[in-house]
Amino acid sequence: MILILEADLAEQSPVFQQLLTRLKALPDIQFRIHQEQGAEQLLSEIYLIGHTKQLRVEDMEALPGVKQAIRVSREYRMLGRHSGDQRAQGFDYNGVHFGQDNLNVFAGLCAVDTREHVEQMMKALQDNGQVCTRMGAYKPRTSPYAFQGHGKACLPYVFELAGKYGIRVIAMEILHESHMDEIREALEKTGHPTGVMLQIGTRNTQNFELLKAVGRQTEFPVLLKRGFGITLEESLNAAEYLASEGNTKVVFGLRGMKSNLGDPHRNFVDFAQVPTVKRLTRMPVCIDPSHSVGSRDAGPDGIPEVFQVTAEGVVAGANMILVDFHPDPATALVDGPQALLLKELPWFLEDVRLARETYEERVLLAAAQGVGE
Ligand code: PEP
Ligand code: MN
């Protein structure tokens, strides 16, 4: 059961303390406090764990400081959507809103290779009104002999250039908790010119100790990719690990499933589950068309397949797009064949705008039918 408390209730306040005394007296119930300082209010939630069936919602709502009690109706206690659940969804980070009702594009380099390429990429983003990007510094590679990313060595110039070109959020995969410290240190040294969304890749979706470590910090939001060979439920539970440790600023990423049934795509595109994740949880949903399709191939109509699957995801309500671009894909050290060209960026963004407009019209059409009333 989740108790939503009145806004701006400090833990030291007498009301909060009275509530804790009452909760401690409940038999077979443990609890965990979660507080979030929003732009205007301090929001507090208390998660009750254990023999909660014995508790009555009305009794819990009569406790001091409690605004609403929600019986958890399914899994994913913290990130899930429960009946009667009116908690706000989404979060703000470094001036960018992430929610189930909007869309952010993260176009950028799969892997940072040279400073020049980073600068060309960021300049193109600024020229096209973009404030988010992807930049891989730590790369999980199939072969131990393949380029592993420049790691912490590239962070200072990546962050400085981001500041120069007005980039507010960089999605960056980490493979180990020490990478968080390296990122924090580089941001500190460069004077925090940008923000970072920590990405947990598909190979680490069920690396529970990494999830716990990333969940224990709340400075950086997290993009958790779906595991390539596990069920959706297993991946959503992985996201819940982050939240259960304290970090609820989580975006869930679909990136295709490893299956030869999807050939010749790199992965079998799973963007049909965008609305499913939005129905089961309150997380914004990201799609990664580049790692799904894996090539720059275009259909006979001239539309690249990366554009096509992006449109599929956006028309279904996706909230974030993680997409590979490169100023010179032939020299890219990682995933060159799937990177779109910088000159294609305005085209891509316009294509996305059309798909988003269609989604918004579809929402209005559904509302006109009385759906959801
Ligand atoms: C990536 O985004 O660079 C990446 C490696 O993705 P995934 O974890 O989905 O393979
Ligand atoms: Mn890649």
Please describe what this structure looks like.
The model has no long low-confidence stretch (mean pLDDT 95). It is globular, with a radius of gyration of 22 Å. It starts with a strand and ends in a 5-residue tail after the last helix. The chain has two domains: 70 residues, 2-Layer Sandwich (Alpha-Beta Plaits), CATH 3.30.70; 276 residues, Aldolase class I (TIM Barrel), CATH 3.20.20. With 373 residues, it is α/β, with parallel strands linked by helices. The chain has eleven helices and 15 strands. Helix 3 packs parallel to helix 4, helix 6 crosses helix 7 and helix 10 packs parallel to helix 11. The strands form three sheets. Strands 7, 8, 9, 10, 11, 12, 13, 14 and 15 form a nine-stranded parallel sheet that branches. 32% of the residues lie in helices and 20% in strands. The structure holds phosphoenolpyruvate and manganese (II) ion (MN). Manganese (II) ion binds next to loops.
Q: What is the overall number of helices?
A: 11
Report, as a whole number of angstroms, the end-to-end distance: 25 Å
Going by CATH, the architecture of the largest domain would be Alpha-Beta Barrel
CATH topology of the largest domain: TIM Barrel
Cα radius of gyration in angstroms: 22 Å
Counting copies of identical and different chains, the oligomeric state is: single chain
Based on DSSP secondary structure assignment, what is the total number of beta strands? 15
Question: Looking at this structure, what is the CATH superfamily of the largest domain?
Answer: Aldolase class I
The major β-sheet equals: 9 strands, parallel
**Based on CA inertia axes, which overall geometry fits?**
globular
Protein name: 3-deoxy-7-phosphoheptulonate synthase
Organism: Acidithiobacillus montserratensis
